[in-house]
Each structure stands twice: as structure tokens, then as C-alpha cells.
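The pair is listed for reference:
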Amino acid sequence: MPLTNSQYNALMRVYEEKRAKSRDLANLHYERACQKVPELASIDASISSASLDQAKKLLAGDNTALASLKEDIRSLSDRRRRLLSDAGFPEDYLEQHFECPDCQDTGYLDGRKCRCFQKAEIDLLYTQSNLQDILESENFSYFRMDYYSSDFIDPVSGKSSLDMAKEADRLGDQLEARFGRRLTFGTGIHTGPAVVGNVGAPDRMDYTAIGDTVNTASRLESNAPGGKIYISAAVANALEGRINAKAIGSIRLKGKAGEFQVLELEGLTEGSSGRMPVSEGKKAD
């Protein structure tokens, strides 16, 4: 998913703040070091003076000027490192330090997004998706078979999917009467094998379910009119004798070859919980 302009600008402001923080810290280190070792300031002045002198010679045609400048800077830099070490400072104390040494906190390396920027993109999009903390509670450490209620009653709402569909239909009537617009949603149900667990890249993992079964349920949901529950023939066969459903014919589902048999769930048979047999899956190696 590409970043919007505002998201990109927000990330670039973060990088600007990182560079500013790095500069401020380097300046603070320089002030502290010069207070303890005054000679450091004269060494830096000598480096600046030598650079200017050798630049003039280079412009005048002296081909040895560049090599001479490098030798002068090397000698003065060695002297500075020794002074810092003798004063108890690390040799790189005066260098500017970056969170990402590869791109030096610019976000780009050789004209391309640095790995740190790519990770920042993922973190930003993930945070704004409101899923950042989901893995703390939704993982196999908390998995229990009793999540599968015998009568499929949602523990939060206290309703089954059929109850919620009917309630949404009633709410749609109320909204249409009051505002002239209707709120509706359809539901799709399919059954079969699926891969469930933490899926993604090392930098970002999501607890999710993937596979053809999940895709088919999603396609059924996309085709279901508001207030209706579409189920596959596989679901109807698994719940045979426990539900009332009517065939609505075959439809084409995106990504599926040929026609797909679809039924509409009308309700449960009298005295039935509508429970679908659930089998434990195999743990991936």
C-alpha cells in the first residue's frame, strides 16, 4: 500500500528531527571536549586552513596539492583522536552518530528507500490500521476449543450471526423510516481447511487465516444482499437436518472457475443448535 502525501511528509519530518537531534548532540560533545581539551579547536582551525591553502594550490595547477592535503588531515585527525583518548573521551566522540548509519538518517540510500525507511513505512501503516496490539491477545497461547460455542453465540454480543443479521435488518427499517437511507450488510459462510496463525514478514507478523476456504467465504459475503446469509453447499451438507436453507442457484465467484452452488440460510430447524463439527487442525512444522 503506497503512502499518502501526508503520511510521507510525516515520516520525512521524523527523519529531519533525527538529523537535528544528531547535530545537536555532536555540537554538545564538541563544546564539552573543547572545554576539557582547548587544543582541539586549534586542530580544527588548522584543518580548515590547510584545506583552503591546498585548494588554492590545486587551482593553481599543483597536482600534488590533493595528496598533501590528505596527509595533513590524516596527521591532524590522528592528533585529535589521541587528545580525546588521553582526556578520557571515545575516539569517535566528536563524530555525528545516526540511528541508521547506512543512510545517515535521510531515509534514502543511492536514490532508493533505505531499509530503515521501508520498516518505518510498515510500522506507520500497521499502527494506523489499529492492529498493533492484536498479537498480544490473539495468538496460539490463548487458543481454546471452547471458543467454538455449541450454538455459535458470540460471547460479546450474545447473538448468533442469524440474530445479528435480523437485528441489522430491523435497524435498517428504522434508519430508512427516519433518514430515508438503509444500513444493510450480508454474510458469507464456507467451511474447509485453512492456514491459521502468524503470517507475514519478519518485521511485521499478523495473526490471520488464509487459504481458498477464507477467500470463498469472502466472495460469498460480497455477493450476499443486505440482511441475507449465503452459505456454500459444503456448509449445507455439514449441517444437514439442522438448518433451513433454500438454494438460490449457481453464481460466479471472483477467482473461482465455473459456477458455484449457493444457498440462503433461513434459520435453524426446531430444537437444533446448528452446531457444525469442528476438527482440530495440524500444527505447521
In short: The mean pLDDT is 81. The longest strand covers residues 243-251. Residues 57 and 65 are 6 Å apart (CA to CA).
